[in-house]
Inverse folding.
């Protein structure tokens, strides 16, 4: 961030200097042009008397001389501006690293599978963005195989998304009705999604509003009831139904259609009531409060919804929210993650790169480069914030190492968890738990998955 600010300061200097030059010389040069045009018109219309021609010629000579002086002065200051612009390039070279080979594995793309996987992820990203022609060209040049059944849904989704951008809900509403049975089974957190831009890569990322909270205030962590009649799966289903909601896309689309009607004025009030009766009855169980609010809006149509207590209901960002909901539901139905894999990779890489470059510089100075070479794990822990945390991680409390496929977490019979390497170092056949006095056999430890 400091590097970006340093470059930004140099850019501000260039823009400030250019703006000052533009203001000062635009006025002077325009005055010279206006004076010359006046004299030119007088000569063309024979408005100058014979005795005034000589003074007019002298005035033209003075204007030409003055124009040359200002032009030369402008050229000098323009050359000085070039030196200021060159400082921006020097600031970029000074604050940013252009060679990232030190943080890369040289043989990572020697394996054809990795190259194919990368091309597939890039191709999928372009399909998701609606750039079907670019994706098709990449498929042809890279030689990867994309089934027509994979491409066709993206073409349809592109059409629907473009319709929503143009504030046409009906293609999306038809899609939601077709997939209603599947969408009703999808369970989502009750918190709305918000789109923001990554500070590291300047690419969009989406996180729940509650992602930054330090504590979960819901009741999902309540103790399980003691009754034996309720099975665990049934209890989990009830908890999900209580704290998680199914897709709200179809209701939001009907809501937008209703709001569009009532904003047309009193003449369309009957149409709005008829639309509400025809479409909102199926959503009463889940969205009773929202429907009541919309019915209350009917009373304020004569004075205008924008001047009513419900003015916040007709904000422009409602369309953005519906587009986000549609993207989420469409990705769920296609079996894709909500965010593009390419976006996630670039965002995570840009956030991690400064720390990796710093540690590599330190390792080079201390001549310990071999510590990192050939290993799949990083030499330091990198905090990628909550938007890049997709699953729990386990760090062994004994060896202070993060678990991996070759060193998984193991549960002892006393309930304490340590890594497999720690288990092997504590004892070959029998061991004593490092946290309690219970003795046990190493074969009794069980592999657990996070």
């Amino acid at each position: 961030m400091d590097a970006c600010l340093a470059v930004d300061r140099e850019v501000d200097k260039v823009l400030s200097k250019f703006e000052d030059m533009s203001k000062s010389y635009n006025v002077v040069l325009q005055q010279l042009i206006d004076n010359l045009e006046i004299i030119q018109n007088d000569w063309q219309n024979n408005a100058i008397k014979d005795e005034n021609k000589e003074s007019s010629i002298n005035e033209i000579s003075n204007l030409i001389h003055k124009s040359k002086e200002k032009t030369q002065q402008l050229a000098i200051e323009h050359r000085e501006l070039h030196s200021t612009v060159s400082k921006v390039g020097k600031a970029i070279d000074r604050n940013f690293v252009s060679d990232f080979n030190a943080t890369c594995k040289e043989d990572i793309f020697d394996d054809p599978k990795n190259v194919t996987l990368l091309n597939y992820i890039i191709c999928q990203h372009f399909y998701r963005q609606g750039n079907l022609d670019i994706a098709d060209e990449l498929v042809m040049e890279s030689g990867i195989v994309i089934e027509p059944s994979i491409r066709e849904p993206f073409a349809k989704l592109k059409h629907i998304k473009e319709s929503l951008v143009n504030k046409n809900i009906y293609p999306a509403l038809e899609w939601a009705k077709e997939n209603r049975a599947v969408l009703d089974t999808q369970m989502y957190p009750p918190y709305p999604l918000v789109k923001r831009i990554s500070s590291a890569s300047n690419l969009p990322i989406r996180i729940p509003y509650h992602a930054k909270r330090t504590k979960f205030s819901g009741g999902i962590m309540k103790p399980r009831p003691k009754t034996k009649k309720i099975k665990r799966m049934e209890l989990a289903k009830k908890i999900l139904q209580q704290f998680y909601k199914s897709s709200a896309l179809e209701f939001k689309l009907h809501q937008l259609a209703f709001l569009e009607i009532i904003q047309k004025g009193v003449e369309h009030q009957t149409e709005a009531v008829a639309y509400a009766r025809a479409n909102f009855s199926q959503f009463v169980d889940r969205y009773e409060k929202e429907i009541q609010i919309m019915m209350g809006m009917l009373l304020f149509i004569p004075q205008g919804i924008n001047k009513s207590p419900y003015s916040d209901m007709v904000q422009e960002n409602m369309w953005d929210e519906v587009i986000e909901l549609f993207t989420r539901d469409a990705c769920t139905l296609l079996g894709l993650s909500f965010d593009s894999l390419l976006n996630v990779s670039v965002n995570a890489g840009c956030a991690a790169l400064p720390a990796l470059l710093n540690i590599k510089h330190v390792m080079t100075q201390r001549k310990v480069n071999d510590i990192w070479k050939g290993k799949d794990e990083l030499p330091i822990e990198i905090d990628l914030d909550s938007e890049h945390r997709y699953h729990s991680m386990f760090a062994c409390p004994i060896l202070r190492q993060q678990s991996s496929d070759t060193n998984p977490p193991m549960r002892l019979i006393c309930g304490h968890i340590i890594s497999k390497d720690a288990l092997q170092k504590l004892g070959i056949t029998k061991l004593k738990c490092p946290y309690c006095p219970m003795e046990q056999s190493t074969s009794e430890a069980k592999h657990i998955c996070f």
In short: The mean pLDDT is 77. The two ends are 34 Å apart (CA to CA). Residues 81 and 87 are 10 Å apart (CA to CA). The first strand starts at residue 193 and ends at 197.
